[in-house]
Write a structure and sequence with these properties.
By secondary structure, the chain is mainly alpha-helical. It is 64% helix and 7% strand.
């Protein structure tokens, strides 16, 4: 069985970086993803992580299993975060879209779960870059 993450030798500026620099980049991205809750800022963090992934010239097709697992995890995370909170988000007057029994879907809950997914995905992409290029 092949490991999910393995080193891919490439001629990119990311591969040429010192491993300590890549570790610092990884820690910085995870810290920034945890620090912010605004979806717009998290989108910028995710876009920059994707740019770094593309700059590293890492193969997409050889890691399709990892990408499928990430997609499943993100969908599961978003669904669970919307269901475990009775009103989607702990706000005084949530904007409820749909309510069933003790479960309710609100705009606040959607944005909170979207923020969690963006955090998860940006951290996963930067982690993949760190592991596959070091």
């Amino acid at each position: 069985m092949q490991p999910y993450f393995k080193y891919f030798p490439r001629n990119s500026f990311v591969h040429k970086l010192d491993p300590r620099t890549k570790l610092f980049l990884l820690i910085t991205y995870i810290f920034l993803a945890i620090l912010f809750t605004d979806v717009r800022i998290l989108m910028l963090i995710l876009i920059s992580a994707i740019i770094i992934y593309l700059a590293a010239k890492l193969p997409f097709k050889e890691n399709i299993g990892t990408w499928k697992f990430l997609a499943f995890s993100m969908i599961f995370l978003m669904a669970i975060l919307n269901l475990i909170s009775p009103y989607g988000a702990k706000v005084e007057n949530p904007h409820i879209i749909f309510k069933f029994w003790i479960f309710a879907l609100s705009w606040e809950g959607i944005f909170l779960s979207l923020a969690a997914v963006l955090r998860f995905l940006s951290g996963a992409i930067i982690s993949m870059v760190f592991i596959m290029s070091t």
